[in-house]
Amino acid sequence: MIPKPLKGIIPPLVTPMLDENTLDLKGLERLLNHVISGGVSGIFILGTSGEAQNLSYAVRKEMIKQTCRIVGGRVPVLVGISDTSFVESISLANKAHEFGADVLVATPPFYYTPGQAELIQYYWDLADQVPLPLFLYNMPSHVKVMIEPETIVKLAANNNIIGLKDSSANGVYLQKVMYLLKDRPDFTILVGPEEMTAGMVLMGAHGGVNGGANIYPELYVSLYQAACNKDFETIAELQPKVMNISLSLYNIGKYASSYIKGLKTALNLKGICDDFMPEPFHKFNAAERKFVELKLKELDSLIK
User: Fold this and answer.
1) Long-range CB contact pairs, 287-293, < 8 A, 24+
2) What is the number of domains present in the chain?
3) Is 165 a catalytic residue?
4) Is the peptide bond before 280 cis (omega within 30 degrees of 0)?
5) How far is CA 13 from the centre of its chain?
6) How far apart, in whole angstroms, are the C-alpha atoms of residue 190 and residue 206?
7) What is the DSSP string of 218-272?
8) pLDDT for 152-164, tens place per residue?
9) CA 300 to CA 304: how far, in whole Å?
10) Which of 123, 137, 216, 220 is catalytic?
């Protein structure tokens, strides 16, 4: 049973890979144990940080299977089923259920841009046909459509749609969503961008799906707890550290993929998992890797 609302820090796990079609299973196990020991409240796989759309369906299904096996019920497992094909989303959902996952997460379908009425029908059909509870995933920068606040309110009436993961980085939008759903304390609101998670938790959000928690889970859990407790002194101490991670690791080079490259390189330098990236991306070159290494040493000293 999933708590309603689901609260806490839920890392959007990177997908450790050895090559285009092979998971780094030892790395995956180290990574999962690392974040769980850091106090996270769940695991989200096959999202943006997990490079889901660059993975074969076989690898995605194997990632679901192995993650559920390694986690072993210690925390809830959320699985991304976003796809251009409704049938493939259903297939991934069924595999998630078969392997023991707890929650599904789906962006709007991409390439063709659906209207809001089409989105309502799409999500309603999806929620009615999948075997697990469903989170909406608002990611307008990647799928080119915003799930409007009024659309979310209508979809929240479906008993199998239990929450929203918002990665819009739009604080006004998210506050409007929370205001419109003020009478639905059971409906989970999770924040993607780690830079704004503490502020949104203070405003009523339930937690963060924060990429940096792959590397420093304890930091993000502590910041979340401080926000829940309105411990402004601790927030003032920890928030700059989160910003330092963001500015140090996520903007190296002029790549749309810089964030994921920074995460994977840092995890590799820490000996947690391989930093291979499936096409169309490639891991950092030697100079960029050296830059991450220097920044990581500074961060380790700051965050210890």
Assistant:
1) 288/252, 288/253, 288/261, 289/265, 291/252, 292/249, 292/252, 292/262, 292/265, 292/266, 293/269
2) 1
3) yes
4) yes
5) 7
6) 6
7) HHHHHHHHHHHTT-HHHHHHHHHHHHHHHHHHS-SSS-TTHHHHHHHHHHHHTTS
8) 999 999 999 999 9
9) 6
10) 137
Question: Which tokens go with 166?
Answer: 């918002």
Query: Does the active-site annotation cover 137?
Result: yes
Tell me, yes or no, whether 303 lies in a domain. no
| Max intra-chain CA distance, the chain | 52
1: pLDDT strictly greater than 80: no
> Which residues in 23-62 are b (16+ Cβ under 10 Å) and which e?
bbeebbbbbbebbbebbbbbbbbbbbbbbbbbbeeebbbb
* Threshold 0.85, pTM exceeds: yes
DSSP 52: G
Residue 190 host element (H or E): strand 188-191
Structure tokens at 49: 């940080």
Domain containing residue 115: 8-231
In this structure, what is the dihedral angle of CA atoms 208, 283, 52, 97, given to the nearest 10 degrees? -80
Residues 252-277: tens digit of each pLDDT:
988 889 999 999 999 999 999 999 99
Q: How many Å from the N-terminal Cα to the C-terminal Cα in the chain?
A: 35
| Residue 281 maps to a domain | no
Indicate which CATH number applies to the domain containing 98: 3.20.20.70
- pLDDT tens string 63-100: 999 999 999 999 999 999 999 999 999 999 999 999 99
The whole-angstrom separation of Cα 182 and Cα 162 is: 14
Q: Which of 61, 165, 241, 264 is catalytic?
A: 165
Q: How is residue 16 written in tokens?
A: 């450790």
- Look at residue 2 and tell me if it is in a domain: no
Q: What is the DSSP letter of 40?
A: -
Examine residue 17 and state whether it is found in any structural domain, yes or no: yes
